[in-house]
Amino acid sequence: MAAGRIEDRLRALGIRLPEAAAPIANYVPFCVTGNLVAVSGQLPLQDGALTATGKLGAGVSLEQGRAAARACFLNLVVQLRAACGGDLDRVRRVVRLGGFIACTAEFTQHAQVMNGASDAAVEIFGEAGRHARTTVGVPSLPLDAPVEVEGLFEIA
C-alpha cells in the first residue's frame, strides 16, 4: 500500500512512531464503535522504556512533562493506526484527549504539560487535530509515569 498523506506528514516532521505497547492489565488498546475509536490511556514509552518517571513538581520538569505528553500522543497514534487497518488517512478528527498528570499537590501547570500532546495532534492532523480536552492532576500513574493520555477519534 502506498504511503498516505498522514504518513508523509510524519516523515516530513521527522516523527518515527514507536512500536505498539501491549496492555499491562485486563483491557484492550482500543475499541472501535461505529465511526469512533476510543484509545486506552498510553504512557510515554519510547523503545520499550518510559521517557521519564516521577512527578511534576518533584523532580520532573515542565519540559520533561511536555515531552512525555507528546510521547503519549505518538503512542495513541500507533494504536489508532492499528484500529484503522494501517491507514491513518481514515482519521477525520481528534475528538477528545484526556490527560493525567502525576504531580505534587502544589503543581498547577497541568495545561502546559498537556500541550505536548495537543500540539502534536495539530502538528500531525492539522485542523482535524484540534480537539476537546480534559487534564487532571493525579497522585500516581502506572510504572511511575509522569503522564498518561487517552483519546477519542473519528474515522471514516
Record the SSE blueprint:
Elements (H helix, E strand, L loop, with lengths): L4 H8 L17 E4 L2 E7 L2 E2 L2 E2 L4 E2 L2 E2 L1 H22 L7 E12 L7 H16 L6 E7 L8 E9 L1
Parallel strand pairs: 5-6, 7-8
Antiparallel strand pairs: 1-2, 2-9, 3-4, 7-9
How would you describe this structure to a colleague?
With 156 residues, the protein is α/β, with parallel strands linked by helices. It has a single domain (5-14, 34-155), classed as 60s Ribosomal Protein L30, Chain: A. Helices cover 29% and strands 30% of the residues. It is built from 3 helices and 9 strands, in the order H-E-E-E-E-E-E-H-E-H-E-E. Strand 1 (30-33) and strand 2 (36-42) form a beta hairpin. It is globular, with a radius of gyration of 15 Å. It holds the Pfam family YjgF_endoribonc.
Q: Which characteristics define this entry?
A:
alpha/beta, 30% strand, two-stranded antiparallel ribbon, globular, 60s Ribosomal Protein L30, Chain: A, 3 helices, 9 strands
